[in-house]
Design a protein that fits this description.
- This protein is mainly α.
- 78% of the residues lie in helices and 0% in strands.
- The chain is rod-shaped, with a radius of gyration of 39 Å.
- The termini are far apart.
- 33% of the residues are buried.
Length: 436
């Protein structure tokens, strides 16, 4: 029991010592913060007097305000300033950020060089200080009140939203894309960050353009995760939505991730095939290449184009891709149907008309190759007649192909000659001979 009492006594004495240390540390921190604040206020008063007297140089404004900002920022961050003094501290901070902001804006207007990064960091200091001043300054009304003064501070904070767009442009022009994106994102979320002025903020450009510019800034800076996060909002700027989409798609190639590119394009084209026909063609080409690399052991094109045509049967490249795969597998009837659908979609599509004829022609050739192996004469004759029938069926499609490319007989004359010969149209066959 005695040991326990001794231990409790020791614990109480340690607690008392710790309390004394904490109080001493707090007192020292408060003293230091007070000194920093007083020094910052002196700098603020001195530079204000010189600015009002028009005797302060730009270099002096920038250097003195930086010095004063560093002091007041430390004081505020220490947490050792009394709550009833925080409004005053933030007012000092806002003054020391406002003067450089005005100076740098004048530089910009006069097309003078200046530190764009400092413009951005000082702007953040200014808006945060204005917010702090509004938060911690008690509103007083009447002739001697501060109500109108605080309204002007609100107006200043609201106006500063546009300065973030300018800062973003400056940083982007200098290749500081991370800072530019930070500035754009601050503008995008300005009314959330600074709800005090949510009803006062008016941007000089349509707000829908801000995430669009942010997205493209992220792309220039190769910040691909940010791009993906901003994509949906950037697409709301419909005037340039196509360009935004193209940049997003091609960014996967920039990353060297063709698999991700293919997956993204597939998702996009299946969802909206009509608006993305060029990408359908590109993805079909990519899948054909992958199939060849796999030695025919994989089937990528057909499932894809069938998914597209199930969504919209009038997508030309998807129907053509389907026809191509059927033709490659010697499934000529299925290929013919798909090629014929292509001619319905695009009536002057030479390739589709030619391939329709070729489906019939190839079937005829395959059947003709079996005639000599058929021992039954009756059956052999039937096969021969069927061959001629297929050749006759092919003629109208080759002739339509000829109409689509009348000055290029090398594309259709050989097959037409063969079909004309097979169907005993000797004069027309002779005409093809001359063209060949």
């Amino acid at each position: 029991m005695k040991k326990i009492i001794i231990s409790m006594a020791l614990l109480l004495s340690v607690g008392t010592i710790m309390g004394q240390v904490d109080k001493a540390a707090l007192k020292a921190a408060q003293k230091e913060a007070k000194a920093q604040m007083e020094e910052a206020k002196k700098i603020d008063a001195a530079i204000t007097e010189k600015i009002n007297a028009k005797t302060a140089t730009d270099e002096e404004i920038l250097s003195e305000c930086k010095k004063g900002q560093a002091l007041i920022r430390k004081a505020i961050k220490s947490g050792a300033i009394d709550d009833n003094k925080l409004g005053e501290a933030y007012k000092t901070y806002a003054d020391l950020a406002q003067f450089p902001n005005n100076t740098l804006l004048a530089y910009s207007q006069n097309k003078q060089a200046f530190d764009t990064l400092f413009f951005f960091t000082n702007l953040k200091a200014l808006t945060n200080a204005l917010q702090g001043e509004l938060k911690y300054t008690k509103v007083t009304k009447g002739e001697t009140g501060n109500e109108n003064y605080l309204k002007s501070k609100k107006s200043n904070l609201a106006l500063s939203a546009n300065f973030y767009l300018y800062a973003a442009q400056l940083c982007s022009d200098c290749g500081k894309y991370d800072k530019a994106l930070d500035a754009f994102e601050t503008a995008m979320n300005y009314t959330k960050i600074y709800p005090e002025v949510a009803d006062l903020v008016k941007f000089q450009i349509p707000e829908v353009q801000i995430p669009y510019f942010a997205f493209h800034t992220a792309h220039e800076g190769k910040m691909y995760d940010k791009m993906e996060a901003l994509f949906d909002q950037a697409m709301l700027f419909t005037d340039n939505a196509e360009a935004t989409k193209n940049v997003m798609i091609e960014s996967y190639r920039e990353r060297g991730d063709t698999v991700a590119w293919a997956n993204y394009v597939r998702q996009l084209t299946v969802k909206d095939p009509k608006s993305n026909e060029s990408y359908i063609q590109m993805l079909i080409g990519y899948y054909i290449k992958k199939e060849k690399e796999a030695g025919g052991d994989t089937n990528l094109v057909l499932p894809y184009v069938e998914e597209i045509t199930a969504n919209d049967p009038n997508i030309l490249m998807a129907q053509y891709g389907k026809a191509y795969k059927f033709f490659e597998s010697e499934k000529y009837d299925e290929a013919f149907d798909a090629y014929l659908k292509c001619t319905e979609i695009k009536s002057d599509y030479y390739d589709a008309w030619y391939q329709c004829g070729l489906c019939k022609f190839r079937k005829a050739l395959a059947l003709n190759a079996t005639v000599s192996t058929i021992k039954n004469q009756v059956e052999a004759k039937k096969a021969l007649e069927k061959t001629k029938g297929l050749m006759a069926e092919a003629i109208p499609f080759f002739e339509k192909a000829r109409e689509c490319a009348p000055d290029e007989p090398q594309k259709w004359a050989y097959e037409l000659r063969q079909c004309y010969n097979a169907t005993d149209q000797k004069e027309k066959a002779a005409e093809m001979d001359k063209l060949l």
